[in-house]
Sequence to fold (423 residues):
Amino acid sequence: MLISKKMSFICDFCGIVGDHSPYLCATCNLVVHKNCISLPRNIRITQHCHVICFSYSFQQNQVEDCMCKICQTEVDTSYGRYCCSASGCDYIAHAHCATNKSIWDGTIIKEGYDEKHGPSNLITDVIEQISIEEIMVASKIKHSYHHHNLRLTFSGEIKDDSQCDGCMRPISTPFYSCEQCKFFLHKNCAELSKEMGHPFHKHALTLTSSRTLGDYSSCNACSHWYQGFSYRCYRRGCSLNFDIRCMLMLNTLNHPSHDHSLFLEHNRQRDCSACSGTMEPWSVAYRCMKRCDYTLDVACATLPLTAWYKYDKHPLTLTYSDESEPSQLYCDLCEKKRQPNSWFYYCADCDNSLHLNCALGDLPYMKLGNKIKGTRHRHPLTVVKNIWNCPPCEECRELCNGQALECKESGCNFTIHWDCCWY
Fold:
């Protein structure tokens, strides 16, 4: 029964205080918000792999961990909440968290829905298989985003500049490779599902290649320009896309820069604790579970923990603070000053310190040798890595010490930084 008057109450479905016109069940002594009266029974959110069901009759010992998996605060089980419908799964979330517009797309799951487990929409065809310790493994496959067959490699020599054509990270075993051209895929990248959900976005995302979107694209989570595979939303009016590195991120994160675990939070509007950058109102970020306001944006959370410097034989380690004298806070590559509270890459053996961008370059997720179209230059430009002979950029005249774009046409020696080629 609708009570049409102003009154203070606590909604039995969401546990939040209300102050006007609740619905009342006198028999059960339930008081419910107008909005909560229509909470759906079964929904699916991309933050969890199973259907979750609304319940307000909690059974003791049914769920051991009563922390909301979305906001990481306690769930008062005397009120309504969403719980996982799968046997043995203890996922639980506040009703208002699970139905938040940034988490749930509004789709209601009908009763009797047949829950499916695991990826059933792989994008590869298996051509040959081998048995390893009684487990059948695909030794030869045909991938939808490459025109030749790919063969599995478990060990062997890998060239330093070899990159996975899926995630653009340096190649490591096991991986699939093409015997006819320089195409590589990590085994995990080759086994990605054609469609999957991710906690960054409320809609299901579809696997695609940068070749179908153009030569390159920008990730909406970390803002890096990239080539290779990505997951894209094709819902009407929504064109978000996330690169593979960001798609591998989870709800929670243990990062060496902080003592406590971090959890994913939507619509986070505060500065990143690593780069001090202000996040957009619609962005996601990782926040400390202990509520100490430590926050990482996705770009900083996905930074590689090690990097290489051409004049150092050791890997440089991602470092989070520097107690050196102010006169020592300089980058050994660009020779410009570093900020004491900004992250940097450091080699303790050789005492080399580099800015993040100086260590990684402008195009860390572009494949060397790939051509880029659509720049101001009359010819397509090739992604190159300048190691020793560093030509100056045609626009800013500074040396191209890392990745750059170079013209390979005969008689044309044009070289330009990525950021400069659009001005």
